[in-house]
Amino acid sequence: MATGMIVKALSGFYYVQTEDGIFQCRGRGNFRKRQIKPLVGDEVEFEAENRTDGYILDVFERKNELIRPPIANVDQALLVFSALEPDFSPLLLDRFLVHIEANGLEAIIIISKVDLLGSSIPIDILKYKEQYEKIGYTVLLTSTLQKDGIDQIIPYLDGKVSVVAGQSGVGKSSLLNSLKPELNIETNEISSHLGRGKHTTRHVELLRIGNGLVADTPGFSSLDFIDLETEDLSGCFPEMERLSADCKFRGCTHTSEPKCAVKAALEKEEIGESRMKHYLQFLEEIKNQKRRYD
């Protein structure tokens, strides 16, 4: 028996990466009865007589699991947002960050196309960069994701399993192509490779890039908060999570409660006004969703 990581799943076969190479395996017959579905990213135990005739015996416990793309044990998300065309959207970025935090992932924020802004970067982009770095996120400013951007990104992939996500139309496919040119992902609006529309069953594969692994399909296409409770939301805002212990009331929602440490920090401008605004907007959205389902 041996152990390895599933790096591709296709047509009932699982391709398991080990130090000795890749082994093509099938799942055990009782997996379906036990409601076990191996995923790309899973660490597994398997046995194989040769490279193409193996069986997965066990799937080890996952630290997380994403639905889109269907992948497990992800370490981080590369969140790609453009400075222009389309304009940078802090609201959408915060929405993505909530999902990243809820899934226990790290986030690398990539603001692309800064070269389209002219000779100097606008002050608002620099302010957002400073704000998110103060929270604790890594923020990279890149041009149209050519060599300078790739050189910045590669070191952050080392030893990690990463997915790419972000704003529509910002060049997520271009980023993947730049990281791995042989991918040749289509960058038009309708792309069978990206698994849109009728092609949503397309397989996912982890690609070796630098010293890390990157999913070849952009993730987080669904950004609703159905699985998030109101009391969990502030935990997805790291700067609020750090202050929550100082609030007078346990489970403080940082709205109308007295002696709220988060509201006090907002008044001192220690928390970004846009972040608080988006938090309150998401909180109301979650409440409305719960009312509809109840």
Short description, anyone?
Its cofactor is Zn(2+). This protein has 294 residues and is of the alpha/beta class.
Descriptive account of the structure:
Helices cover 29% and strands 24% of the residues. The protein is built from eight helices and 13 strands. About 5% of the residues have low confidence. Pfam families: RsgA_GTPase, RsgA_N. One of its GO terms (biological process) is ribosomal small subunit biogenesis.
Q: Biggest β-sheet: count, sense, barrel?
A: 6 strands, mixed
SSE arrangement, N to C: EEEEEEEEHEHEHEHEEHHHH
Oligomer: single chain
- Can you identify the CATH class of the largest domain? Alpha Beta
What's the name of the CATH homologous superfamily of the largest domain?
A: P-loop containing nucleotide triphosphate hydrolases
Domain module count: 3
- Work out the radius of gyration: 21 Å
Binding site for Zn(2+): 247, 252, 254, 260
Domain EngC GTPase: 72-221
Pfam families: RsgA_GTPase, RsgA_N
Organism: Halalkalibacter akibai (strain ATCC 43226 / DSM 21942 / CIP 109018 / JCM 9157 / 1139)
List keywords for this structure.
294 residues; OB fold (Dihydrolipoamide Acetyltransferase, E2P); Rossmann fold; Ribonucleotide Reductase Protein R1, domain 1; 3 domains; 6-stranded mixed sheet; 8 helices; 13 strands; 29% helix; rRNA-binding
